[in-house]
Design goal:
Layout: H1 3-16, H2 21-38, H3 49-57, H4 62-65, H5 72-89, H6 94-102, H7 105-108, H8 111-115, H9 121-131, H10 141-164, E1 189-192, E2 203-206, E3 213-215, E4 232-236, E5 243-248, E6 254-259, H11 260-263, H12 269-275, H13 279-285
Parallel strand pairs: 1-6
Antiparallel strand pairs: 1-2, 2-3, 4-5, 5-6
Helix pairs in contact: 1-2, 1-12, 2-5, 2-10, 5-6, 5-10, 9-10
The structure holds zinc ion (ZN) (2 copies).
Length: 300
Amino acid sequence: MTPSLRSKSIQRYSETRPDMAPTLSFFEKLWTLQDSIAQEAPDWQPPAANEVESALASGRIVFAISAPLVPAEAFRVALHSVSSLLANEGGLPLEHADVLKDADFDTAVTEEMVADILKGVDAFISTMYDKLGGEDAGVPLTTYSFVVTTALTPFIAASATKALKPLKDFDWTRWDSGLCPVCSTPASSGRVLDSGALQGGVRMLSCPLCRAEWGFTRLRCSRCGERSHAKLEYLLDEQDKGHRIHTCQTCHGYLKTSFEKDLGFSVDPVVEEVVMLALDAVAAERGMSPLGENEDRVAN
Ligand SMILES: [Zn+2]
Ligand SMILES: [Zn+2]
């Protein structure tokens, strides 16, 4: 998380995209909350750069070698803070907001669950959801999934940055995956850097959970690994060439992507993902789903 790039981006889009201003203002509160939660993250020493490199080259993620500790009590406090903000200002249906405000995370989230959270966030979410009453309680799983991941990010984002920072010259074709090299979550967006050259720049993918960024071949599906140009396409609106949807006809998956050259500035993927929220509906209309048809086979 880079607050200065983030605030510059928020300001820019609030001016150029006034339609996005209310949504951005809600997310800005959420990101500020995450910044304060991050103060509670214990310090973590990443593995040595050569250890990280050899792990990645053999297809292992950083957190499989060594993962930061998520403190259970601070995490429960974070869950409460995120759900209150979401309930009060997230524009949820009133009945969902009421359930969320009363959610008993202190009972539903045990020390053991938090100790294992980085081994399987989805498993954590479904266990917690069941303990909170599941569907019968009236709030969709996706809402709790948002709460958990939003509360978790600040405990691991600085660690992810620390782990990858010494790898500046790493050849990312050695990782060659649409899954995050730090925590294994599928990429939530991409950005194509402005290289100044006609051929276009490098594509970086972004992790929605630990916010790591890593390089990935431009002409390849980040979901199923398809390389055939005939199957891959960028959907774009001529009015907004800086934001495109990279689609794949093989798996019907897609990745929302920012083009820095067209936008004319360096982007913050966290802000870009909010600005590109509307593109999900465009992709869905064409029968696409974010991870494609075979979620188990996300490019690896
Ligand atoms: Zn990650
Ligand atoms: Zn694909």
